[in-house]
Amino acid sequence: MRIQLDFWSVLSQWPLLVKGVVWTLALTLIATLIGVAFGIACAWVRSQNTRAPVWLQWVVGTYVELIRNTPFIVQLFFIFFGLPAAGVKLTPEVASIIAMVINLGAYSTEIIRAGIDATPKGQIEAAASLAMDRMQTFTRVILPPALKKVWPSLVSQIIIVMLGSAVCGQISTQELSYAANLIQSRNFRAFEAFIIATLIYLSLSVGVRRLLNWLGPRFLFGR
Amino acid sequence: MVEFSVWDILRNLLGAAQWTVYLSLIAFVGGGIVGMLLLVLRLSKLRGADTFVGGYVQLFQGTPLLMQLFLAYFGIALFGVNTSAWVAASVALTLYTSAFLTEIWRGCVAAIPKGQWEASSSLALTFGEQLRHIVLPQAVKIAIPPTVGFLVQVIKGTALASVIGFIELTKAGTMISNATFKPFVVYSCVALMYFVLCFPVSLYAKSLERKMNAVRR
């Protein structure tokens, strides 16, 4: 038995692949910006160092545990198929972004909280002795070193969410996995199409990890 | 038209949830065995083993599980073997799980002080004996909390098998919501069931972690 692989018939559809990559990166970028910001806010609530109202701690705690213990695909389906029944209509792209933001937000909450909780008490006291208020203490004293500490795990989580975006193709968001599916339905070269898509994902994850590891120390938490 | 009550929906979903559990167990046990073999291979310091296992881990951690499932599904079919969603899902999830477990366990073995290896080799223990009597018993203790924690990821990962037509909790949810036109209720129930499966495991992992930290302090 001979197996014939024809990669060219897939690669000749490169405009679709490029479009898919662009969508994948765009989804990841937006989800990262909003999701990490959201995660920081939730981490502020969840941390023992910041004394947030108890009811808010309950709300955020429930959100984090609910999201972390259910699969992304179910969250996505719930938002895309479930919410319209409740009167909220969304395009696939918006639904994908919301799902990714909610997902990344929950995971990054726990990651960032670990960094915040590791802040030495003396630093918070020192900030108080400089007459900083709670907000200033958080944004200037607690957050930057916390982010620095957890940046590698945060980057890993962002990569996981980017790879998770492959699922968004299931609700016809036109990202990379959707492109691969489209190509294989046109030329029946399923195995080749998915090999190529997988390799592109692999290079994306390596590239994005490098980029974020380079960006983080330069722009995010000061020098 | 037949009316579906919430109870009907729940009953049907519960029936499908057992397949999620079976698939998780297959992936976890299979992944554990393959992961163990890969770990020993890596520790054995055979030439090229480090690069091979490193590349393996990178490949499975750096690509979406969904693509791995598709590749298994269409890849096995390419060899003329009739692929059921069962086989493809089991293979893909086993490989995926093994990559993560081998990486988790590698960290645990690396946490064993080098002196333990040296002392055991000075006692003229062979590599196998060192692993079996000295290093692994200590590493296993460290490895249990993160391994249990990873089980949650495996359970959630099985949801993707729905995409290649494996009828488990998520797929059943899709089918039922198509039949009942109640996607909001159905997907809420599906999410709730995953939560009921995963949350106790998460809590257990967390409590194990806390216990371990207490011992170390």
Largest sheet of chain B: none
Mean pLDDT of chain B: 92
CA-CA gap between termini of chain B = 64 Å
The coarse overall form of chain B would be flat
Q: What level of helicity do the residues of chain B show?
A: over 70%
Going by CATH, the architecture of chain A would be Orthogonal Bundle
Inertia-based shape of chain A: elongated
CATH topology of chain B: MetI-like fold
Oligomer: heterodimer
Tally the beta strands of chain B: 0
Order of helices and strands of chain B: HHHHHHHH
The whole-angstrom Rg of chain B is 21 Å
Strand content of chain A: under 5%
* The CATH homology group name of chain B: MetI-like
Could you describe the 3D structure shown?
The complex is a heterodimer of chains A (223) and B (217). Chain A contains 9 helices and no strands. Chain A is mainly α. The termini of chain A are far apart. With 217 residues, chain B is mostly helical. Chain B contains 8 helices and no strands. In chain B, helix 1 packs antiparallel against helix 6 and helix 6 runs antiparallel to helix 8. The longest helix of chain B is centred in the N-terminal third of the chain and has 38 residues. The model of chain B has no long low-confidence stretch (mean pLDDT 92). Chains A and B meet through helix 3, helix 4, helix 7 and helix 9 of A and helix 3, helix 6, helix 7 and helix 8 of B. Chain A: It is found in: Cell inner membrane; Cell membrane.
Quick overview of this protein structure:
Chain A is mainly α and 223 residues long. Chain A has helices at 8-11, 14-46, 54-68, 72-85, 92-117, 121-129, 134-164, 176-187, 190-220.
List keywords for this structure.
heterodimer; A: 223 residues; mainly alpha; MetI-like fold; 78% helix; elongated; B: 217 residues; 0% strand; Amino acid ABC transporter permease (chain B); transport (chain B); cell membrane (chain B); transmembrane transporter activity (chain B); ArtM/GltK/GlnP/TcyL/YhdX-like (chain B)
